[in-house]
């Protein structure tokens, strides 16, 4: 009898240990749990970290992430509205907001959740790219014409950008986020990581970039030539103004000098008219008679009389 009681006591202790071991569970920070009994959910999801109680052996715990997770899609070749094929690499952030619905709709499998996001986000991305031209995909709405890294202007693409890549990503998020709550998932954001061209398009883009840069260089050269002509015109105008002022000042000075000389000549003439007449005659002779000059003079000429008087002396 004593041995039976000992066995029963040991059995009860072992059962108590098993109950304690399987009847409690620890929920880590950043995790959430859905308790199931025979596969059916029991109660609301547990989201508070710490020690929690469940029915041992009959109930199981299903742990899920509460933190933000990353979805990273495979790069896909997608045609744009203007029939240009591009490779798009898209990523997104998501989290489980309703663990019970997530368990029921997805089965608690993260790989299946990633597959669902592939279909939802990937399909939305493809639809949006199909509806927009290349210029909308490759540029951001806050880029200016001068800072476009792809080297393609709106004019060279034949259309004006309306939204840009970041706004398209916002629309993709808005559309895709409407489909995820039914799976207990909240889509936080969607971002286009990289846009690349297929080889045939890349060659055309490079040619267009070269053409665009040549056009910009020609515009700058033309602008420079215009500025050069304007500067030279200004210099020439200023030079003419300076020369005109200098000539005007020279003429004024010369006029004053001539007036002063005339005044002096007048004073000299008034003091001795005969001497002045004689001096002017000599000056005229100096201009007329050279080293090899031959003169034919009339006997009535004043010069002849003067020369004749000189010879007589």
Explain what the structure shows:
With 313 residues, the protein is an alpha+beta fold. It has three domains: 64 residues, no CATH class; 129 residues, Tetrahydropterin Synthase, Chain A (2-Layer Sandwich), CATH 3.30.479; 41 residues, no CATH class. It is 56% helix and 18% strand. It is built from nine helices and nine strands. The chain starts with a helix and ends with a helix. About 4% of the residues have low confidence.
- Total number of β-strand segments? 9
Q: Return the CATH topology of the largest domain.
A: Tetrahydropterin Synthase, Chain A
Topology as H/E string? HEEEEEEEEHHHHHEHHH
Number of helices: 9
Overview in brief:
With 313 residues, this protein is of the alpha+beta class. It contains nine helices and nine strands.
Keywords:
313 residues; alpha+beta; Tetrahydropterin Synthase, Chain A; four-stranded antiparallel sheet; three-stranded antiparallel sheet; 9 helices; 9 strands; 18% strand
């Amino acid at each position: 009898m004593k041995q039976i009681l000992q066995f029963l006591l040991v059995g009860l202790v072992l059962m108590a240990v098993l109950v304690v071991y399987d009847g409690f569970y620890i929920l880590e920070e950043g995790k959430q749990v859905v308790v199931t009994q025979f596969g059916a959910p029991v109660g609301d999801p547990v989201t508070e970290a710490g020690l929690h109680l469940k029915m041992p052996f009959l109930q199981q715990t299903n742990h899920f992430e509460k933190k933000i997770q990353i979805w990273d899609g495979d790069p896909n070749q997608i045609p744009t509205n203007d029939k240009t094929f591009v490779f798009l690499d898209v990523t997104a952030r998501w989290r489980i907001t309703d663990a019970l619905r997530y368990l029921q709709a997805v089965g608690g499998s993260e790989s299946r959740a990633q597959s669902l996001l592939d279909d939802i986000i990937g399909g939305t991305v493809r639809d949006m790219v199909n509806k927009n031209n290349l210029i909308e995909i490759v540029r951001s709405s806050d880029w200016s014409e001068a800072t476009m890294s792809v080297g393609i202007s709106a004019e060279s693409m034949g259309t004006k950008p309306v939204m840009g890549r970041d706004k398209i990503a916002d629309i993709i998020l808005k559309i895709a986020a409407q489909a995820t709550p039914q799976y207990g998932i909240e889509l936080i954001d969607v971002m286009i990581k990289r846009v690349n061209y297929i080889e045939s398009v890349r060659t055309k883009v490079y040619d267009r970039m070269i053409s665009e840069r040549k056009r910009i260089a020609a515009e700058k050269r033309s602008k420079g030539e215009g500025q050069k002509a304007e500067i030279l015109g200004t210099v020439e105008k200023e030079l003419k103004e300076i020369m005109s002022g200098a000539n005007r000042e020279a003429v004024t000075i010369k006029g004053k000098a001539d007036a002063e000389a005339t005044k002096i000549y007048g004073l000299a003439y008034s003091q001795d008219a005969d001497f002045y007449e004689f001096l002017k005659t000599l000056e005229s002779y100096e201009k007329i008679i050279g080293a090899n000059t031959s003169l034919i003079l009339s006997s009535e000429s004043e010069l002849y009389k003067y020369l004749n008087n000189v010879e007589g002396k």
